[in-house]
Amino acid sequence: MREVAAACGMTVGNLYYYFASKDELLAFCQEAAMGRLHHLAHCVELRNDLDADGQLFFLVLGHVVCLNEAFPGSLAHTQIEDLPAAWRDRIVSARDLYEAQWRAVVGRGVERGLFEVADEKVATMAMLGAANWTVKWYRPDGERSAYEVGEQFARQLVRGLLTDAAQWQPPTIDVDELNRIFDRDDSVASHAALAKRN
Amino acid sequence: MREVAAACGMTVGNLYYYFASKDELLAFCQEAAMGRLHHLAHCVELRNDLDADGQLFFLVLGHVVCLNEAFPGSLAHTQIEDLPAAWRDRIVSARDLYEAQWRAVVGRGVERGLFEVADEKVATMAMLGAANWTVKWYRPDGERSAYEVGEQFARQLVRGLLTDAAQWQPPTIDVDELNRIFDRDDSVASHAALAKRN
DNA sequence: AATAAATTCGAACCGTGGTTCAAAACGAAA
DNA sequence: TTTCGTTTTGAACCACGGTTCGAATTTATT
User: Fold this and answer.
1) 3-class secondary-structure state, position B115
2) What does strand D contact on the protein, if contact means CB under 7 A?
3) pLDDT for res B186
4) Beta strands, E only, A117-169
5) In 10 A of CB A185, how many CB atoms?
6) By CB distance 3.0 to 4.6 Å, which of A126, B14, B54, B82 could disulfide with B171?
7) Residues of A with CB under 8 A from a CB of B
8) What pLDDT sits at residue B192?
9) Is residue B79 left, alpha or beta, with left meaning phi > 0 and alpha meaning psi from -120 to 50?
10) Taking 80 as the threshold, does the pLDDT of residue A197 lie above it?
């Protein structure tokens, strides 16, 4: 907590004025991160023009970006075990709800014959796992932006489910809309991401 | 350390007779786990009869099984950050070597036109990430064995790379050989896994 | 059986990090 | 300017977990 306070330019006593405990702070950050993910899932859900493959594409892309582009994204699915049960149950519930949204998209794809999946839960966990693990290795100063990593992940992971990958085209990407979805307010970052892509 | 000692049926002083520090114990477990993964990669490498897709399939399957079927598999790629630099560098080197082996298989698949990959490193990290994240959610008492999860992951993740998924068939699985690869000495477990599949 | 080596134990040390709290400082309102 | 509410501080408490070590016990060797 002293380190966190120092990083924020304050002292530990000050930090305790705002958060009763380290657990509360951690849970707060996790909830903030989960909130962004739920926002993502909600925006994707509203995209009725997209079929399951397109929606899943944006879920993967968005997830990777949310986790890696800004603090406290990386806390969304990590360190949950560190919390006492009272806090943890809440985060776990939110997480499970979010996962259910992914699974619903996968299920829809299966129903419509777009996806071929043996077990929807396991298939979803494979994709979420890949996206979550980016927290462990992604570095903002690396070769690729979170956006680029997310996009490649989305292509790869959606293709893993497709019944007919040969005919598949990833959805069109509208950067302004993505910024709204990701709640990004830094247009410099979005243009940098575009420039890096071209 | 007291808990670990208690779990082993000894006291903490006893445990310190064998390991100079908690870091040494952790590194020891991690190296053991990495050793199994390197064994897996080596066995897969010897399978010259398999093309890149088949080899990748067994890498994914084997990785999930190694991490989840027996202690200390789950420590192979986790808690590395917890170690001081001296220890950590060694584990990281072994991990990087192992990852390079995955990447080599992916690279071969690309050369032979089996795989279509924008960035081999990112593609590999997606698959490894999915497999590593199983540590977070897989439960031995769950609905599926590590073997089953690993197999479904392998199908899904390999398909995500395939140039022509429509014609693809996963490799034939020889359980006895897998037991040798995974260094499993429990034939009951392997038969249970087979029975569950059928 | 005696001796040496190996293993185990129990109690204690101690640094780290979570937490507390009275007092000081700051900002807002009257 | 004074008063009140809010924020910040610095020092200290204390539990926890990593670690130590002399003594006791067990095992192996002669």
Assistant:
1) strand
2) A 10-14, 16-18; B 1-2, 12-13, 16, 20-23
3) 47
4) none
5) 9
6) B54
7) 77, 117-119, 122-123, 125-134, 136-137, 144, 149, 152-153, 155-162, 164-166
8) 44
9) left
10) no
List the one residue out of A26, A25, A62 whose CA is nearest residue A47: A62
* Tokens (6 digits) for A133: 């693990």
Q: What is the dihedral of CA A96, B72, A134, A171, to 10 degrees?
A: -60
Backbone torsions φ then ψ of A45, nearest 5 degrees? -60, -35
H/E segment holding residue B28: helix B22-46
pTM > 0.80? yes
Q: What average pLDDT does the segment B114-129 reach? A: 97
Distance CA B80, CA B60 (A): 21
Tell the burial category of B15 from Cβ atoms under 10 Å away from its Cβ (0-12, 13-18, 19+).
middle
Q: Is there a contact between A142 and A196 (Cβ–Cβ < 8 Å)?
A: no
- Is the CATH number of domain B24-197 1.10.357.10? yes
Q: What was the ipTM of the complex prediction?
A: 0.89
Domain A22-197 matching CATH 3.90.700.10: the answer reads no
- CA A174, A178, A180, A186 dihedral sign is negative
User: What residue segments make up the domains of chain B, in order of their start?
Assistant: 24-197
CA angle A25, A30, A36 (to 5 degrees): 130
Tokens 């019944």 belong to which residue? A163
